């Protein structure tokens, strides 16, 4: 049965699959989002730990900020010595990454892995990166001719799956989780677990049927709080999933989403770092402060809110609005203590036992090849792309892909493809 393109029925699918040259005999499927510009967005990877790992080790496996890893999972960062806390094998984590557009397809190319003795491409793909990548994809990304000879200490690019879909799902702000299907999963259970519907998952992933298999990678939309930061801010495009936190502005500002309203709420982060002023100009209000006065016309609400991180400065904006009702006390998503065991809880659900080979040892020397972890502002530079389908995007896409012809370009712009990889 032919897969259906997302939100747009175009009967050219097979041609496009051939054009993209993504058909192979391997049976796992994954969702491909064609893209047209160099913008990137925030995305999440659903990752299951293959062994016990410190917070900092998980972070360096993906070359991300450990604090961003913790806040994305609502883990309390005020816990003592949190970066050295050991997270248990089989724990499910959401890994915040930046999703870019590479050769017309959304993917993340910011992860590198330094090989250790006894690594094989299969163990790196299936065990260490928990099925988020295949051995063939690593082989291809690194132009490896003979996968049986991996030098120890060799640095490999690990391409990882991600989607942006314009930061929306059904016109509401959303961030996309790349989810590796497990043996025990059904589409119904995944939809329930992430508070979405089967129809939505099928649309997003351009699926022709509800059949899924272990190893397939689904794009799962998570409702989120979008930001409205200016393009010149280094954290432009900041988007925070419901029920979690993000840290930004060089660890100075913490933003949360939910549980009540899906309006992004930012306030000073309780981390011992030196920060530029977070006071709103011409007022005594600090970032995150909201005051109100009941008047005959309604509730006069004044708030000092976050306007982005610009050239090392925290931008604050003071705004006053007349609202029908006065706001209540700000609600925060519940924080969890750093997990030490894997429970049956839905956010930290157990995954199948990791591959036994090479799974028992704690890697001590996972070194990011760039030599430096990304700065302390995890979302810096990771902007949500300009709206797909705007006139200018259409033009640049035309230029890039001019040989493909118009209708095809339109299709590529609007569709995702659920393809074997
Ligand atoms: C956000 O999360 C809260 C609790 O986790 C839930 O009650 C609420 O329905 C969620 N909102 C949306 C829009 O999913
Ligand atoms: C304003 O925000 C600061 C920092 O979060 C907080 O300490 C203070 O209590 C707040 N003041 C009011 C009036 O809400
Ligand atoms: C709301 O309050 C601010 C200052 O507290 C005041 O300047 C403004 O005029 C008030 N607006 C309304 C509509 O009452
Ligand atoms: C940031 O600083 C650079 C040079 O220091 C300046 O050219 C640029 O305009 C500044 N950006 C903003 C938004 O202030
Ligand atoms: C992308 O999202 C923006 C709002 O965030 C919306 O205005 C625009 O229409 C969307 N574009 C597409 C192609 O969905």
From TrEMBL:
Domain of life of the native organism: Eukaryota
Signal peptide boundaries: 1-28
PROSITE patterns in alphabetical order: LYSM
Name by which UniProt lists this protein: LysM domain-containing GPI-anchored protein 1
This protein's record includes keyword Ligase: no
Boundaries of every LysM domain copy: 111-158, 177-220
Xref: Pfam families: LysM (PF01476)
InterPro entries cross-referenced by the UniProt entry: LysM, LysM_dom_sf
Gene3D superfamilies the record matches: LysM domain (3.10.350.10)
Keyword Iron: no
Keywords: Signal
